Automatic annotation (TrEMBL):
Single GO cellular component term: cytosol
Active site location: 114 (proton donor)
Domain Glutamate/phenylalanine/leucine/valine/L-tryptophan dehydrogenase C-terminal: 190-437
Protein family (similarity comment): Belongs to the Glu/Leu/Phe/Val dehydrogenases family.
Descriptive protein name: Glutamate dehydrogenase
Binding-site residues for substrate, renumbered to this chain: 78, 99, 102, 153, 371
Pfam families in alphabetical order: ELFV_dehydrog, ELFV_dehydrog_N
GO biological process: glutamate biosynthetic process
Alphabetized NCBIfam families for the sequence: PRK09414.1
Length: 439
């Protein structure tokens, strides 16, 4: 496979995927013959564009925009938009690559893509975010459409940003259609979409635990991040009787041994989503410990004794040193809410030490699954109830559990869900690629 040497995150995503492929490739001569892997690592299309916008002082600002259309083998490109200063081509490509296989696992007809910009929404006014989103969509609109490519949210892109993006798309095209998911409830959004990634993560983790005769009830959990995925992971863990004792942001973490109760979680939602504040404010309000992040040291959040850990912030947030701390403290399950939250060697440490690992491709697929359901509802011009969507989400996560565990049993070791997820999704995408010829 041809990989650019400077694209570290993309290389890492492909490398860990190829480790799983090693287990099946000799049995699949048609995959080698049709150069499926070589084709999979090359995006079908990658668009990079200039995003000029005017700040509140009247100065011109320039950011770089991306949309990677990785694979349309099984459906229109589908995947989120990320707004974060760290965004670059390598991060976009790793996320798009992961998305292809994640979407395949949902069982819904969605290809894979990802996009975003190095724009930093932190500290920007609503008007600045709107002007940025409008400029971003002024280029993006020509590359997307309800049957072509359907973006959604990711880090830095929530309901506010999706609203601004949708408004501009509609103005440019004069079409009201399901071109984005994660829309507001008044203009085509699906109920349970905000909750879906976190809820889905907990549903899948629960299926894995039950398979081992373990439960969430009464267990102590670590959650990192404090954004969309973290918040709804805490909400579902609480409702299933677990206790969550941590949250974090890029500046630091809070440790609340008495648990982040539903009341405290309501405060976090208000703090992060409305006030756009920082997690240290939680420590001040509830008089608990706050530890500032020192990136030269292992992350203290992964050195707290607990039963299960749910990294829900960003890629590579669990290093080798963090993995060793978690294992030494007796962690039993890692549920990956973020995309690729563990370094490759850290994942290896978990697998070698018998820690159950719910890999991101499967574990955080609930978000895109409900995005797929939002596309269905938009096409049919109807709206399902929360209960209906939640039930479909649970069915989809159960389907994912069944397919990754049976692929693990058949092609790898029992409970190696990393191999299970990679292999089950690969088989589906590669079959569609072979059927469609050399495209
Ligand atoms: P949000 O923007 O809502 O929250 C992100 C959280 O992670 C914030 O607490 C943020 O802290 C923290 N964070 C982000 N970047 C860094 C960093 N470089 N170092 C430390 N902390 C960081 O994003 P989401 O909750 O939507 O996304 C979180 C993860 O889940 C991402 O990996 C995303 O790709 C993945 N995901 C999200 C889905 C969704 O539906 N939203 C679907 C599937 C996966 P701070 O405020 O300081 O930046």
């Amino acid at each position: 496979c041809q990989l650019d040497p400077d694209q570290k995150e993309f290389q890492q995503a492909v490398y860990t995927f190829l480790l799983s492929m090693d287990k099946i490739i000799d049995e699949l001569p048609e995959v080698t013959y049709h150069k499926i892997l070589e084709r999979m690592v090359e995006p079908e299309r990658a668009v990079i564009f200039r995003v000029p916008w005017i700040d509140d002082e009247g100065r011109v600002q320039i950011n770089r925009g991306f949309r990677i259309q990785q694979s349309s083998a099984i459906g229109p490109y589908k995947g989120g938009l990320r707004l974060h200063p760290s965004v670059n081509l390598s991060i976009m490509k790793f996320l798009a690559f992961e998305q292809v296989f994640k979407n395949a696992l949902t069982g819904l007809p969605m290809g894979g893509g990802k996009g975003g910009s190095d724009f930093n929404p932190k500290g920007k006014s609503d008007a600045e975010v709107m002007r940025f989103c409008q400029s971003f969509m002024t280029e993006l609109y020509r590359h997307i459409g309800p049957n072509t490519d359907v973006p959604a949210g990711d880090i830095g892109v929530g309901g506010r940003e999706i609203g601004f993006l949708f408004g501009q798309y509609k103005r440019l095209t004069n079409r009201f259609e399901g071109v984005l998911t994660g829309k507001g409830q008044t203009y085509g959004g699906s109920l349970i979409r905000p909750e879906a990634t976190g809820y889905g993560l907990v549903y899948l983790s629960d299926y894995i635990l039950k398979g081992e005769g373990k439960t969430l009830e009464g267990k102590e959990c670590l959650v990192s991040g404090s954004g969309n995925v973290a918040q709804f992971t805490v909400e579902k863990l609480n409702s299933l009787g677990a206790k969550v004792v941590t949250l974090s942001d890029s500046n630091g973490m809070i440790y609340d041994p008495s648990g982040i109760t539903p009341e405290k979680l309501a405060y976090v939602k208000q703090l992060k989503n409305v006030k756009r504040g920082r997690i240290h404010e939680y420590a001040e309000k509830y008089n608990v410990e706050y530890i500032a992040r020192d990136t030269s040291k292992p992350n203290p959040i992964w050195d707290i004794k607990a039963d299960y850990a749910f990294p829900c912030a960003t890629q590579n947030e669990i290093t080798v040193a963090d993995a060793k701390n978690l294992v030494n403290n007796g962690i039993q399950l890692i549920g990956e809410g973020a995309n690729m939250p563990c370094q490759a060697e850290a994942e290896k440490i978990f697998l070698e030490n018998g820690v159950l690992l719910a890999p991101a491709k499967a574990a955080n697929a609930g978000g895109v699954a409900v995005s797929g359901l939002e596309m269905c509802q938009n096409s049919m011009r109807l709206k399902w109830t929360s209960e209906e969507v939640d039930q479909k989400l649970q069915q989809i996560m159960k389907g994912i559990y069944d397919s990754i565990s049976s692929a693990a049993d058949k092609y790898s070791e029992h409970n190696n869900f990393v191999d299970g997820a990679n292999i089950a999704s690969f088989l589906k995408v590669s079959e569609a690629m072979i059927a469609q010829g050399y495209v």
